[in-house]
Amino acid sequence: MTSHNAFLELAATGIDFPLAGADRARLERHLAECTSCARSVSAIRADAALIAGMPKPRLAEGRSAELLATVLRPRGLEQPLRLLIAVALLGLLIAGALMAGARLLQREADPLVVVPSPPIATPAASAFAPASPIPSPSAPSPTAPALADHGILAVTRGDGSGATWIETVDLATGTVRKVADGSDPAWLGRFQLAYSCTQVGGDFSGICYIGLGDSKPSTVIQDASRPAPAPDYRRLAMLRGMVDVGRTWGAPVNADGLTLTHIAQGSFLRWSPDGSSLLGQPEGPTNQVAVVKADGTGMRVLATGYDPAWSTDGLSVAFAVVDAAGSSLRVVDVASGSATVRYQVSTPGEVHAPVWLPDGAIVFVVDGDLWRLDSGASAPTRLTSGLSVAADDMAGRPVLSPDGGHIAFTTGAGASARVGTASVTGGSALLELAAGAARQPAWAPAPATLGGGTRLGDAWTEGDVPMTPGRPISEIAAVAPAGGGFVAVGFGCVDDAPSCEAVVLNSRDGRSWERAPKQDATDIGLGRMMSGPSTGMLDVAAGSPGIVVVGYAARPDLRATAWFSTDGVTWSRTRLAETLDLRVNAVAWDGVRFVAVGEDRDAATDAAAIRTAHGRAAVWTSSDGRSWVRVTGSELAAGSLVDTLEDPASGGMVAIVGGANGLVGVGSTCTTARGCTGAIWHSADGSSWESVAVPAGAGVLQSVTATATGYVAMGPSVLLASPDGQKWVKSDPPVAADLKALVPIGDRLLISAEVDHSAPARLWVSGDATAWMPATVQGGVSPVEPRMDASRWRFGSNGSTAVWFAETDTRSGTSVWWSVASGG
Amino acid sequence: MDPTKTPLEALQATPARRAAVEVAIVGAAWADYHDEIYAFLVRTVRDADAAEDLLQEAYLRLTRQVRAFDPPDNLRAWLYRVAANLAVSRGRRIAAGMRGLARLMGRQGAARVDEAPEAHILDREARHELVALFSGLSPTARAALLMSSEGFTGAEIALAIGRSESATRTLLCRARIQLRHGLETREAAS
After folding, report:
1. Whether A72 and B63 lie within 8 Å, measured CB to CB
2. What stretch of H or E contains A781?
3. Which of the two residues, A195 and A531, has the higher pLDDT score?
4. Which residues of A touch B124 (CB under 8 A)?
5. N or C: which end of chain B has fewer CB within 10 A?
6. Touching B: A residues 639-658, CB under 8 Å
7. Which of the pair, A290 or B11, is modelled with greater confidence?
8. What contacts A617, CB < 8 A, 6 or more positions away?
C-alpha cells in the first residue's frame, strides 16, 4: 500500500470512526501537502453525502396499512378483542388504511371446497342380483368417508372454448396449481407429468414431459398420444397413428424421448404390475383382450371382451363382455387363459372400466355408478348413486388411489364434467374447483406403488430436529455417517444478537437428533460475510480416529479451521491456516488419513494485485484428525485469481472423496481472461497430486462421490463418470440444468435439482448414474415445495438409512427427513 | 401495583391492556420509522418484495419483544439493527446457496448472486454512476454505508451487521474507496 493510499483509508475510516488525535493530525498535515489526496478525500466525503441522497423508496399507503395489520395480527383466544383494538388504532395511525387492514385480517377462503354427496352403503346380498333391476340407493351411512383427505390428483380442465390444461389438486391442503396446457395427464414419478400436448397453432400433437413448476416441457414426442408410464417410470407406452385403436409404441423416460420402439399393433397401455407386459386390445374387427411383452414379443389373446384391467398381483385380468346373455364382468387367469364370469348383469346396464382393489375386490361402472364386487361375493354393493360416472378415456376412467382407499372418477361430460372421489367402502364427494370442466383424474404415485417396496432414497419421512431456545440453527451444511449413526454440522446465528455458534447434531438412527452442548470449540463468534467464508462448519467426515469437521471460526480472527471429536459431543479445534488467503471447503477420510481441500488465493486485496495474483488448490492431510500438514506442489496450481469485487475467485477444490483408486478432488481453475473451468485432481496417497483431463465443455464441478464401479462428479449441468478417477467421460444427468447435490444413498446415487427458485426441486435415484428414477416423499407434507432453495439441501447415508436436511415454507427452521428400504 | 412486576408488566395486566400497549408501542414505531427502515431495506437487498417481507419480520420481532415485556430502549437503533441482520442473513442464505459456485464461476458467478432477482429495482433507478456502483457492493457493505448515511456511528453499525469494529472499519473503508475508484474510472472513461 502506498502512503497516499494509507491516508485515503485513514480519511475514509474517519467518516465512521473517530480518529485518534495523532492520526487526525497526521492526516491533516498530509492533505495540506498533497493536493490530489485532498481532492480524493473531499470526493470520498462527497460520496457519503451522495449516498444519503439516493432515492428512498416508500411503501404504498395501502400496503403500509396491510403490513402493519399483519404485524399486529391478534393471537388465539384474544382475537376479537385485539381485532377491535388493532383496527381502531390502525384508523388513528394511518388514515384511510382501515379497509385494507380489515381485509387482510379476514381469513382467506379455502381454494378447495368439498361438496359431499350422500354416502351410500347398500347391503350386498340382494342389491344387485341377476335378473333384477339395479336397486335404488339406500340410506346414507353416517360414518362412511367421503372425499379423500390426502393424495394429489392431476386433472384435465377445460373452459368450454376447446382449450384444455392440466392442474394438480392437493387434497390435503386444497392447493391447486396449473401445470401445462394439454390433456391425458400421467405421472412420471412424483414431480413430473407426461401429457398430450398440442403446439400453439396446432401444427402438431404429441406427448410432453414437464416437471411440476416448470414453465415448459423438457421433452416432446411428436405424433403421439395417451402416455402410459411403466410402474418404474423408466419407460412410457403411447399410441401413435389412429387414436383408440392405434399402434402402441414405447420410449424410455428421462432420455431424449425420441428413441421410440414399436411394441404392438393395437392399443396396449396397461402395464402389468411388474412392468414386464402390456394389456390391451389388438387391432381387429372384434374386441379382444390380449397381453404382449414390453419388448413387443409374445402377443397372446386372452379373451373376447373390452376394458381389461390387471389384478394387483398381475396373475388375473378383469374385463367386460357384452353378448347375447347381456353384460358381464369376467376374470381370466393370465397363465392358463381360463376365464370365468364373475358377475352377469341382466339389466339394460353394461359393465365398464373395472378396477381391482388390493384385497381382490373389483370396482366397476354400471349405468353411471360405481359398484364393488368383493372377492368371493356373488353380488356387488353400490358405492355411488346418480353420478353418471364416466368410463371412457376421453372423460377419464375410474382410478384407484395409491393407498387403495379411494377411487377418483369423472362425473358428467363436456363442459359440466367434474371430478370426485369415492371411498372403496362407500360414500363419495366432488371436488369443487374453479369454473370449468374437470376430467381425467390421475393420482400422483406414492411409495407403495414403486414396485412392491421402497429402496433407500425412494421415500422420505420427517424426523425430529431439536429446537433449543436461544440456539437457532441457521443452516445445516453437511451430514455424514459416523459411528453407525450420523453427524450433521452447520452454524446458528441469533439474528438480533450478533453471535454465532457452530452446530453439531448427532443421531443414532437418522430420525431423532440431539444437539451437542455449547462449548468453547463451537463458539465461532462474529463473521457474517456476504461472500467468501463465513463462520460455521462446512463439511464433515468420519474415520477411524474420530470425526473431523472443516469450516471457519472467527475467534480470535476469521480463519480456516478444523474441528475434531471422538464422540460427536465434545470438540476441539485447530487452525488450518494463519491467513484468510487459505480457504477450506471440504474434508474426506480415505481409509488412512483425513484430507481437507480448498484454495490458496495469495495475498491480494485490491484490483491491481488481484489481476496479477495466482491462486491454486490447497490440500491438508491429517492421520489423527488433530494435527494437519499442508500439502504443496505445482500440480495444484489453478490459474489466476478472478476479481469478483468483494470475493476474488481463484479456483480450487470444492469437494473431495476417497475411493478404491485413491482420492479425487473436483473444483475449477480460473483465469482472468477466460473465467473458471472444471478441474479434477487425483492422488493415490493425499500427498502427490496430479491434474487429470476434464471432458470438454464440462464447466465447473461442485460434487464428487465414489461408487462401486468408480467415481462420479457433478457440475450444475453435467455428470462425469470415471472407473479410476483419472479418465473421465460425460454421463446423462436426469435434467440438464441446476443440478444441486450428488450423494451416494445405499448402493445407488441420488441427485437433487432445481429448475428455478419458484419451482419445486426434485430428486432422482440411480443405480448406474445413467438411468435416473424420480424419488418420492411420503408423509403429510412434502418438503419439496415451491420457493425452496435446493442448494441448501444436505444428504447423507450410512447404508441402511438416508437422511435429508431441508427447510420448508410450512415449518420454521430446519427439518430432517429420513429414508429406509422397506417391503419388496 | 404488584411489586413483583415491572411497570410494563403491570400496565399489561389484562388481555385488553396488553393489546392496547402492544398496538400503541408497535403502532408508534411503525408511524415513526417504517418508511426509513423500508427504504433502508430496499436499498440493501435491492428487492422491494423482499424488503417488505423483512420489514414485516422486523416489526414482528418488535411485537414479540413488547409481548415479552422487553421493548427496546432505542427503537430506531434496534429496528436498524434487526433490519440489517435480517438483510444480511438473507444475503448470506443466497450466498451460502451459491457457495462453491459463486467463487468458482468468477465474475459470472458473482453476478448471478448479486443480480438475481433484485437488481432491476436499483437498475431502474440508476440515474447516476454512484447508484450503479453502489448496487455492485455486497449487501453487508450497502447496509453499512446506508446506516452511516443515516447518522449511525461505526460502533453502532458494527453491532448491527454483526461484525467487530475492526472488521466494520475495514469493510466501510474498502467500500468507500472502491466506490471512489469506480467513479474515477468511469469519469476517466467518459
Report:
1. yes
2. none
3. A195
4. none
5. C
6. 642-647, 649-652, 654-655
7. A290
8. A597, A598, A599, A600, A636, A637, A638, A651, A652, A653, A665, A667, A679, A681, A689
Contacts of A477 in chain B (CB under 8 A): 96
Residues recorded for chain B: 190
The answer to whether the Cβ–Cβ distance between A47 and B180 falls below 8 Å is yes
Q: What is the pLDDT of residues A77-99, one digit of tens each?
A: 333 434 444 444 444 444 333 33
pLDDT of B123 > 50? The answer is no
Residue B145 has which C-alpha cell? 454505508
Measured between CB atoms, which of B95, B131, B157 is closest to A531?
Answer: B95
Smallest Cβ–Cβ distance between B104 and the set A493, A532, A668 belongs to A668
Of A534, A585, A650, the CB nearest to B92: A534
Average pLDDT over residues A691-703: 87
Bridge partners (DSSP) listed for residue A691: A681
**From start to end of A360-474, where are the E strands?**
362-366, 369-373, 381-382, 399-400, 406-411, 418-423, 428-432, 437-443, 453-454, 461-462
pLDDT tens digit string along A321-344?
A: 888 788 899 999 999 999 999 998
DSSP character at residue A201? T
Check residue A41 and give its pLDDT.
84
Reported ipTM = 0.70
> DSSP for A532-600?
S--SEEEEEEEETTEEEEEEEE-SSS-EEEEEEESSSSS-EEEES-SSTTEEEEEEEE-SS-EEEEEEE
Please, are residues B37 and B77 in contact by the beta-carbon 8 Å criterion? no
Which of A687, A771, A686 shows the shortest CA–CA distance to A721?
A771
**Residue of A223, A296, A218, A225 whose CA lies nearest to A261:** A296
Show residues of chain B in contact with A40, CB under 8 Å.
180
**For residue A88, what pLDDT is reported?**
43
Residue A372 has pLDDT above 90, yes or no: yes
DSSP A693: -
User: What percent of chain A is predicted at pLDDT more than 90?
Assistant: 25
CB contact under 8 A, A475 and B93: yes
Determine the pLDDT at residue A726. 95
Measure the CA–CA gap between A557 and A527, rounded to whole angstroms.
9
Contact between chains at A58 and B35 (C-beta distance less than 8 A): yes
